[in-house]
Amino acid sequence: MKIKNEFINKILLLLTGNSLAQLILFASSPILTRIYTPEDFGVFSTYTSLLAILMSFASLCLEKAIPLEKNHSNTVHLMYISIFTIAVVCILNIGLGFLNLSLFRLYGIEASIMNDLLLSIGLFFAGIYQVMSYWMLKEDKFKGITHSKLLQSISNVISQFSLISINHVTPGIGLIAGDMIGRGITLVYIWRYFLKQMHWPKVNYRRIGFLLKKYEKFAKYSTWSTLLSSLSLQIIFLLLMRLYGPDVTGHFSMATKTIGLPISLLGASISTVFYAEVAKSISNEPGRVLHLYKSIITKTAMLGVPLMAILAWIAPGLFSFVFGEEWRVSGE
């Protein structure tokens, strides 16, 4: 019973933080949709889509081994490896931009090198944050994760409001740059937190080789499954952008963002705590993990199905009222 209560408390802590963070973003949307166009949001959704795809494999999923590792030096070296591979992917992406092979072209967007540069910087910030957050999971520092998400939301909103003046350079650049700045501010916060909490040993290449061998299955299998999962979610934006352009993609992205809000709030909070519990219990209490999984699936389904039915009924009028008449088609 004590373990169950602790699990619920952790979920509630993350859920509260995630809810506040998402509420800040959602509360800003009615204003952002009136100063940025659907085309801007279409280009921005391309950026976030590419970011999600690159994030799925940039670290080789080795950060997922951090909660499993007991040795401090091994934990830090896993971070070193992840940060290095993320940096390599960022540099390669910038190189593709200079060679006129920008990933934005996959979406039919004639992007400038600035788009690729912002994407690489955003990927670097987001990737390192993801690596650091797994260490915080390992140490049960859920308050730090919650505070960082709140800071990111606030920073994103302020930056995107402030950068509307540069949006004439290329569509969506204000939204993209604002997101990148928000991620950077969040990383500075969490990095300072780490400098106070951790000892950073010198790089040991033998240890790196040992860890790559020990956790090679994460790179071989988890990376591919994560990449395919990300592609399954993002491929629709690629198809819409190429077939119908940024305006339609912007409307669709707003619809998925709004519908996904309650899903991401609850799902992200539960999955974060669930992963931490699995890392602790899978070796000694696999039955407990299975029971916890079945319980979560049943209860979230009972909650989610009626809520989604109500949302589908009221969506067109709700979108028109909240975001402006121009966005009614998103509700439809």
Using the CA coordinates, give the radius of gyration: 20 Å
> Helical proportion?
over 70%
Mind describing the biggest β-sheet?
Answer: none
Q: In percent, how much strand structure appears in the residues?
A: under 5%
Overall mean pLDDT: 83
- Taken from the alpha-carbon principal axes, the silhouette is globular
Order of helices and strands: HHHHHHHHHHH
Show unreliable segments: none
How many structural domains?
1
| Category from helices, strands and their pairing | mainly alpha
Tally of separate helices: 11
Termini gap = 45 Å
Number of strands: 0
What does this structure look like?
This protein has 332 residues and is mainly α. The chain has one domain. The protein contains eleven helices and no strands.
Record keyword descriptors for this entry.
about 325 residues; mainly alpha; 11 helices; about 80% helix; about 0% strand; globular
Brief rundown of the structure:
The chain is mostly helical and 332 residues long. Helices cover 82% and strands 0% of the residues.
Q: Layout of SSEs?
A:
Elements lengths: L1 H34 L2 H21 L13 H27 L14 H26 L3 H21 L10 H25 L7 H10 L1 H29 L1 H36 L4 H38 L4 H4 L1
